Amino acid sequence: MARKPKDPAVLHGHHVITGTDLRAVFVEQDELDGRARKRRRILHGVVLGLLVALIAAAAVVALAVINGQIKLPTPKPSQAAVSQCPDATYDYVPPDKIKLNVYNSTGRPGLARTVADEFLARKFVVGAVGNAQSGYRGVALVVSGAAGQSAALSVQRNLPGSDYVQDGRNDSSVDVILTGDFKDLTKPGLVDQTPGKLSCPRESRREVENPNLPVVPTIVPVSPNP
Known about the structure:
Layout: E1 10-11, E2 14-15, H1 19-66, E3 99-104, H2 111-121, E4 125-133, E5 140-144, H3 149-158, E6 163-166, E7 174-178, E8 218-220
Parallel strand pairs: 3-4, 3-7, 5-6
Antiparallel strand pairs: 1-2, 4-8, 5-7
């Protein structure tokens, strides 16, 4: 019986890799690497093109803004602070109808007592006399509730340059807080007794960051040399 011829591609039961097989493998791998490199080049080209387009667009927009062809929106100015100064016109109240408290927020000892005596001489009904703490910069604060605004007008007519502030009290009493720029009361014969409006000079110099200034001072009822 004739022996079956041996397969030259098999040796001891294992497939023999020939040069043709190796060349086929390397050619296939080269083709895969080539396609991958081509895809990377295309991707890099697209990204580079987009970057160039963005830079060009930004340059065009910048030139248009500089030349006024494009106007960027500007923030709208904040609304003006609402006035806290009463707008009504009040009659002048006779001094003997006004209960007045006088406080000193300056470093001048005895100022509240001196001014309180001057108000007494003008027939005001003076109650408390003491010291106060206030960061207000001006002549004086005149403080009352809504019921005391007519009385506050009379006090302001005797206290030129003072600044009116309303608080939450229910009676018609008025507080005077003397501050750093205070000098003198109006001369008795020069006090205007016609109807008028309260004066709030702080409105013209109010700080934007804190539109509620000045804050009503803290009263210190017991303190020497008011």
